[in-house]
Design goal:
rod-shaped, 16 strands, mainly beta, eight-stranded antiparallel barrel, about 240 residues, about 10% helix
Length: about 240
C-alpha cells in the first residue's frame, strides 16, 4: 500500500521533536563550571568523592587552590583601617639658635608613639607624641624636647609586603635647655617618610626618616629656634 506524503511528513516532524526533547534532557543550562560534567541534564563532579575545603576538581583529581593567606594579602599593611605604634631611634646633630648665639648639638636619641586612621583610600590622618634628648657639643649642657601634633600621610602599596607612607607633621614643641631658667615653646613642621612591613596578621615593623624643626618659638625673653634636625627611627605597630 503506498505511503502518503502526509504520513511521511508527520513521521519526520515527530523525529525532530523527539530529538529536540532528548537533546534538551541531556544538556545542562547553565553550563557546568570547571571540574564538573553534564550527565542526564545534571552537573556531576568529575572527582568521586567530590572535593572539599580548599580543593577543586581538575582533570578528575582534587587539587589544592591558592588562598588569600598563601599570597600574603592577609598581611598586607594597606588592608588595615587604623594603626597604633611606638618607636625609638637616633637624633642626628644639628644647630640650635638662642637669640644670636649658635649651639651645635651632638648625637642624641628619641622615643615616640603615634596613631593613624584612614580617611580615604591611600590617605590617613593621625597624631603623634615624641620625646628627644641631646647635648650641646662644647658645653655638654643637656636639652630635651617634647613634641606633639597631627600628621597627614599618603599610603602607597609598593609590593604585597611593603607600604610606603610619605607625610607631613604639624605640632607644638616644648623644650628645656640646661642653663635657661624657662622652657621654650615653639612650632614644629616636618616631613616624614615611613615604610611598614608586616610580620604577622596585625603586626607591622616600621622604619621612619624624618626631622624636628622649630622655625618660630622661644621663652618670654629669648628666641629659641632651630633648622631641621633629622632622626632615624624604627618601631612596631598594631594594625586593624
Amino acid at each position: 500500500m503506498p505511503i502518503s506524503l502526509r504520513a511521511v511528513s508527520v513521521f519526520v516532524v515527530g523525529l525532530i521533536i523527539y530529538a529536540d526533547i532528548a537533546s534538551a534532557g541531556s544538556e545542562c543550562k547553565p553550563a557546568c563550571r570547571s571540574g564538573f560534567v553534564c550527565i542526564d541534564g545534571q552537573c556531576v563532579s568529575e572527582c568521586n568523592p567530590p572535593c572539599s575545603g580548599d580543593r577543586q576538581c581538575r582533570g578528575g583529581e582534587c587539587v589544592r587552590v591558592a588562598t588569600a593567606s598563601d599570597t600574603g594579602s592577609e598581611t598586607t599593611p594597606g588592608k588595615h583601617s587604623w594603626n597604633l605604634g611606638a618607636k625609638t631611634g637616633l637624633l642626628f646633630p644639628g644647630t640650635v639658635y638662642i637669640d644670636d648665639v649658635e649651639a651645635d648639638t651632638e648625637l642624641g636619641f628619641m622615643l615616640g608613639s603615634y596613631i593613624d586612621a584612614l580617611v580615604i583610600p591611600k590617605l590617613s590622618i593621625g597624631g603623634y607624641v615624641d620625646f628627644f634628648y641631646t647635648t650641646a657639643e662644647y658645653s655638654g649642657d643637656s636639652a630635651t624636647v617634647f613634641s606633639l601634633g597631627a600628621t597627614l600621610k599618603g599610603r602607597f602599596q609598593i609590593a604585597e609586603m611593603f607600604e610606603l607612607r610619605p607625610g607631613i607633621a604639624l605640632g607644638y614643641n616644648y623644650s628645656s635647655v640646661e642653663g635657661l631658667d624657662d622652657g621654650a615653646n615653639g612650632f614644629n613642621i616636618a616631613a616624614k617618610l615611613e615604610a611598614a612591613v608586616p610580620v604577622k596578621e596585625n603586626i607591622n615593623v616600621l622604619v621612619e626618616l624624618s626631622f624636628l624643626s622649630q622655625p618660630a618659638g622661644g621663652t618670654g625673653d629669648l628666641d629659641v629656634t632651630w633648622t631641621p634636625i633629622f632622626f632615624l627611627a624604627a618601631g612596631i605597630e598594631y594594625a586593624d
